[in-house]
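ENCODED BACKBONE
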Amino acid sequence: TLNVPYGNRSNEFIYQATKHAVEYLFQQDCALVVIACNTAGATALRPLQQNWLMDHYPDRRILGVVVPTLEVALEKQHKRIGLLATASTINSGVYGAELKKMNPEIELVDQACPLLVPLIENDGRNWVSPILEGYLTPLIEAKVESLILGCTHYSFLKPEIEEIFKKHDFKTDIISQDEIIPEKLSDYLERHPEIEEKLEHNGKRTFCVTDITDSYRKSAANIYGEELELQKISL
């Protein structure tokens, strides 16, 4: 929270900030870290996995959300997939690169949405619809068969997205990470018992942030559905 939003930051900044956050979690004895942020994952996941992790925590694991999301998209056997994401995620090309590895015949139509995260985080949903419609229009015109919401924030906008599609008499499958990542994580743990065995099963949740403001308190409560105790930490 001290450094967000990441969407328009440099790759080096995003990498360093993500590394510090992951290292903090490993220092708390976490065996597995999921980078839920698409922007952080697109920029930092591979360098962290391939270089830093092996040198510092070879027995731990870091996962992202891009590949699991594309797996779900490919299961639908669609030929043209739309993507809404931050500018950094789009510029990284990670969705296109991973999709090409999985099925080079699939077309990806992407759209950067730099204004959505600030609106969501600052109680701006009353003003989001016309901006969102502007972002969605090229994807509607491209007749995408499914739409990936490539930012964890965007799941909050599913009602607005569906309303815009209804207005344009457009039907497509919405692929939202809040619906698919939990099941994908469960599948991963079943396939990797050596990691699953390291995890505690006590149901404990701790919410750590690097900066606390009234806005973040409110956002956290809205996301979780109740007031949360936020723990301020330094990285």
